[in-house]
Amino acid sequence: MTSKQESLSSQIPDVAGNGLINRRALLGRGVLFAGAAVTGVGSSLTGAAADPLPVDPWSMGPGEKIPPYGVPAKYEKVVRTLTNPNGEPRTQQARTPHHLLNGTITPNGLHFVVARTGFPDIDPAKHRLVIHGLVKQPLVFDLEALARYPMVTRINFIECGGNSAQLFSKDPVQQNVQAIHGLLSCSEWTGVRLSTLLEEAGVDPKAKWLLAEGADGPSMNRSIPLAKALDDAMIALYQNGERINPAQGYPMRLLLPGYEGNMNVKWLHRIKLVEEPVMAINETLQYTYRVAGPKIWQFFYPQEVKSFITHPSPGLTLKGAGFYEISGLAYSGNGRVSKVMVSADGGKTWGEAALDAPVLSKALTRFRMPWRWDGQPVVLQSRAWDEAGNIQPTRAEMIAARGEPRAPMGHMNVITSWAIDSKGEAKHVFA
Amino acid sequence: MTSKQESLSSQIPDVAGNGLINRRALLGRGVLFAGAAVTGVGSSLTGAAADPLPVDPWSMGPGEKIPPYGVPAKYEKVVRTLTNPNGEPRTQQARTPHHLLNGTITPNGLHFVVARTGFPDIDPAKHRLVIHGLVKQPLVFDLEALARYPMVTRINFIECGGNSAQLFSKDPVQQNVQAIHGLLSCSEWTGVRLSTLLEEAGVDPKAKWLLAEGADGPSMNRSIPLAKALDDAMIALYQNGERINPAQGYPMRLLLPGYEGNMNVKWLHRIKLVEEPVMAINETLQYTYRVAGPKIWQFFYPQEVKSFITHPSPGLTLKGAGFYEISGLAYSGNGRVSKVMVSADGGKTWGEAALDAPVLSKALTRFRMPWRWDGQPVVLQSRAWDEAGNIQPTRAEMIAARGEPRAPMGHMNVITSWAIDSKGEAKHVFA
Lengths: 431, 431
Hints:
homodimer; globular; mainly beta; 8 helices; 27 strands; disordered N terminus; five-stranded mixed beta sheet
């Protein structure tokens, strides 16, 4: 920084401890963030001699061929991490690298996956969706039939019920955002409302639940309340504009906005209307959690309000004191995010972050907070509120509600804390 | 249809000629769209004998490996069409297949491209952005520096000024949506506001324009009014969450929401503040159009309000009379789409389409209209309005404004008409 810049910078009032700044306070201040002065480049850059920048080799000839289907630049190594890269006969998980992304949409190639045995290779011309059970008229649909129905497009996140389970360990695990929070993604989904199909089949008044079954080998299945099916459930056919990816349920999946990931059944094959939940293994052994004392959580659905900081975070080392943007993701399975607060002093003081528009219900929301780091150790945290009145809990509140830490624990929406040391390195801590 | 369904269907009032239906009128009617009855599947499907559907081969064993970066299913052949697939030394164009997509986001691999010689192979570690000319302090930025700035995320379309030029030919060209309207796409963009960087450099009061230059071989350049740069211009670094694709300007492009595609300079390398437009070839020979009489259009920027029907459209043949959804895309470079009307009788009567939420400024908006086709020939049209008060013109209005058809003609936002014949095939017509 020049001394003039330092002087300007010191006039900007903080909104919370350790250098959190109100975004509006920055406007019109001419603050030097990180741009370097160019020596010798003045108002005239017409002569090559006046240009201190050499002409880059890629500017000196024709370019590369445009492919029929584009892929990221060869310099980018941004991929999902895989728990079972050789596809051995057990669950495969693939995590979204949120620390290397920005915005709120997840590209289809980087959407998280949890699949019991990988993805089935489904021929879309032969795949059928059947609606049966307590209906007036059982129905079967192929893709061509579904294409004739009224559709709807909506941006929604999906999060695995087990995402961020590491936050409830006894000591803070030293992992990055992708490892801790990577079972979460957000897409624009397009498909047919489930209510439209149920209306056509005619629901028997005795039916209160439905069983959704996938066409994968393990036949993933979950009991779903009829009320949700008639509310905002969708038979999703497109993801970010194109047919959904094979690992996302091609050629169709159930979308239950805001509900635990595994209930959004992929490779959707059958929907059976029933009177009661069927007590599938995925709601008795799996996805059921013991909480404080003898209490068991079962049949809980929405992913609770949550947020975490993606920049900075472990692996993204700060390069010296000065201005940075703290940014991250916030979301709630119960509606819109109403507020995100950020702290740089481990929760002592908080400043309200800006939210990128539009803030959509049950979708990822990007929050941003300008920050002037003085080079000293700090602890960064974010905390989210939703329009339903829910508040993301502190660790102390989580322990009070669920008892002492033990694995596995789902629906873990506690505040994440990153300690930044004087070298600019981020570590996971409990604060 | 069953006779009961036919009877229900005939009770639903149309909102315009040839079977356009109000979406709300459908609710609760139990209308059979296209689902087929399943014989023998009743309330009990526990025994295999009761199931008329054989178990599909992909449900009988383990699945495929989840890859680090997912790709569309092998059954999908949805790609961009290329005008110059061998990369010969002339312009390469790649068109988005909107007739095979749904929703509003374009996947990065399918975003349209117009590139004079393909894409430059830019090493992101060596690329620089320079701001110079009429500024107090010329500045240079690398990617690491830009990463420290406050960013913003926004969903915007980009459309080539030459998109849909075929609509002004003397006779209707027989092409599909991809060929006619495919130089249009929509992404979630994330980056640094240009105004933030200009504020840091300090704009000389004499500066009224800026020259944006790309690092590609032909050094794409355009003069841009300073007012736009200070309004909503962005140095875009991310597209749908990930680093922008090589053909979209990797590692950075200029985003001028709503403005003619070529002004959104890709592979952005230098921004020079100047007093007057520099009269680059791209604003004298290219992207300047003769209109009625001796008039020339030059320095016109926003893409005007426009819409077209993607489903049905040429190549997507209807399979017999019955219910369908008419859907398409609407957008305006001047703000939000306020209304889309659809006609099934060549413009005699119109019904208002439903718009998928959220309707965003300078972004693609998906419109939808339920339709009961009686199997007779019809002409489908859509017409859009924007919040700035603009109305998409008819062909007669376009000719009155611009004179008799002749090529080339940019900014062509006239109504598109698809004639559906009794076989369900769509053809491009002027109506």
